Amino acid sequence: MTITEKILSAHAGKKRVSPGELLNVRIDLALGNDITAPLAIKAFKEIGAKKVFHRDRVVLVPDHFTPAKDILSAEQCKILREFAKTQRLTHFFEIGECGIEHALLPEKGLVLPGEVVIGADSHTCTYGALGAFSTGVGSTDLAAAMATGKLWFKVPESFKLIYYGKINPWVSGKDLILFTIGDIGVDGALYQAMEFCGEAIQNLSMASRFTMANMAIEAGAKNGIIEPDEITLQFVKPRTKRPYRIYRSDREARYVEGREYNVSKIFPQVALPHIPSNVKDVREIGKIEIDQVIIGSCTNGHLDDLRMAAKILKGRKVAPSLRLIVIPATQEIYRQALREGLFEIFLSAGAVISPPTCGPCLGGHMGVLAGGERALATTNRNFRGRMGHAQSEVYLSSPAVAAASAIRGRICHPEELVKKQ
Amino acid sequence: MKIEGRIWKFGSDVDTDAIIPARYLNQSDPKELAKHAMEDERPEFSQKIRKGDILLAEKNFGCGSSREHAPLALKAAGISCVIAKSFARIFYRNGLNLGLPLLESSEASEAIQEGDRVRVNLTTGQIFDLTQKKKFFAKPIPAFMQELIGDGGLIRHLRKKGLK
Fold first, then answer.
1. Packing angle of the helix pair A139-148, B89-97 (nearest 10 deg)
2. Residues 6 or more apart from A142 whose CB is under 8 A from it?
3. CA-to-CA distance for A415 and B102, rounded, in angstroms?
């Protein structure tokens, strides 16, 4: 069996499962945010449920339109706050301890290898980077999971993606996943489990692994997953006292499809409007001037991402009239970036630093685009109107490319500014 | 279970931001969401839609976010059924959970045109284009799912059955 099949079978109380099989799966953690949880809470009440299945295992994170951008958003947050209070939820993250859910949960040790996590947010697939099965669902499914601690799933077929070779300077997990989506398309792994493996993955930092698993949904996948190794354990161990289990795919595990990528041939990538699969090598896109750069999101708001951006921004200034918005993904990342002096670098460069929020990624607040404007963002989606006006454009890249482009005022390769990484 | 309506035709990879832009997600009132369904793609959609209309698309309909507001907005706007070559996974689950019938048919997706009158039989999976007088077949919707759709979605279905 594959790692995905093993985790699902263990949570369904079965010895063996195969793709296509329907399972009733035990959920370790169920997550909702300020957009999706209000509908789930309404549904939860409508089914007549009184108590959540476990008060430690339902997590609510108001992170999308927070700090509340308007009255309606504040009302949504209030629904979460009151539900968390009546249900005595252990994990409700209010402003001050909040963060972008998919960076926050791993950081707090709330998701561990071998677990099954569902979240009413499509980027819930991020936790696959820890060797967990995690997937996005809608509000109704979240309601059912909150009430029963279980949810039905069809066992997905697995798609094996092997990355080998030496990674190039300025290339990160973001470039590898953009390249992959460019190769297989936005429905290239529809309904499937994307299993990322190979020596190049083993050499990736935890931050880069989270980025890759995070964007599995952008290829249509049900989940993205990486087998845990030493790097995973180094991340997990100091964050939890709970037991967890490491699963690995069998040698004879069956895959519906496979791809191999020589990463020494992959250079910094950019996704052009209006679909994440419209990917090109940054050196081949010509002169594209930009109005705004966003460095942040559940995809690339990690400390490593901010460090990379700071390395390029240090001693430099953003292009005149360009707006650079930096968004540390969690309170802890924010504090650490401050301690390391990264904020000084960002501020001197002319950036504005936002509190942790999903904000501009989905055109919510903190950097919405006007008609005709163009942004380069380290986020995950560049659909038409994603960041604001229907006539605006979003380009996607790594933090390194985003930082360099903020200086130049046009999308560029970091080596144009800094010779050596 | 039979449905009849006019076709609104869309292309491939229609994303959830196109179905309902995130700027309207600071609330979840179906009527309010319906006013903005497909707004950026087809600004006239919410005004010109008639109850019972059918949405037709190519591959990967509903890709992107997990927002259940997407099928909710379409349903509240009056869409009675979505026919596509394929659906994005989360949208598919959300649609059925809300009682919005979803059918997969490549042939129908290619042949049926904007404005055609179409009759859909969920029990047999038959899609009949009354304008072109052509028949297509999708996989039928199983009886239990038709019952769920008839009840108005998973939540109402569970409540009716008196299950927790």
1. 70
2. A30, A31, A32, A36, A37, A40, A118, A119, A120
3. 49
How close B26 comes to chain A (CA, Å)? 5
pTM of the model: 0.97
Please indicate whether, in this complex, the C-beta atoms of A220 and B60 are within 8 angstroms of each other.
yes
Q: Which residues of B touch A (CB under 8 A)?
A: 13, 15, 17-18, 21-23, 25-28, 40-41, 59-60, 63-69, 72, 86, 88-90, 93-94, 97-98, 153-156, 158-159, 163-164
CA distance B161 to chain A (A): 10
A401: exposed, middle or buried (Cβ count in 10 Å: 0-12, 13-18, 19+) = buried
Strand pairing of A352-353 and A279-281? Answer: unpaired
Determine the residue type at A108: K
- Around Cβ B140, how many Cβ atoms within 10 Å? 15
**Closest chain A residue to B39, measured at CA:** A390
Cβ–Cβ of A362/B65 closer than 8 Å? yes
Q: What is the pLDDT of residues A14-29, one digit of tens each?
A: 999 999 999 999 999 9
Output the tens digit of pLDDT for each of chain B's 164 residues: 899 999 999 999 999 999 999 999 999 999 999 999 999 999 999 999 999 999 999 999 999 999 999 999 999 999 999 999 999 999 999 999 999 999 999 999 999 999 999 999 999 999 999 999 999 999 899 898 899 999 999 999 888 876 54
A44 conformational bin, left if phi > 0, alpha if psi -120 to 50, beta if neither: alpha
| Residue in the block written with tokens 């980027």 | A123
The backbone torsions φ and ψ at residue A283, rounded to the nearest 5 degrees and listed phi first, read -75, -10
- Rounded to an integer, what distance in angstroms lies between the CA atom of residue B126 and that of residue B109? 13
Model ipTM value: 0.95
**Which positions in chain B touch A358 (Cβ < 8 Å)?**
none
Quickly tell me which residue has 């945010």 as its tokens: A33
B158 beta partners: none
Burial of A3 (0-12, 13-18, 19+ CB in 10 A): buried
Q: Is A280 helix (H, G, I), strand (E, B) or coil?
A: strand
Q: Which two tokens stand for residue A416?
A: 């144009």
C-alpha distance from residue A210 to each of A107, A192, A201, A232, A304 (Å): 12, 18, 11, 11, 11
Q: Alpha-carbon distance A165 to A193, whole Å?
A: 23
b (16+ CB within 10 A) / e for A286-299: eebebbbbbbbbbb
Phi and psi at A208, nearest 5°, equal -65, -35
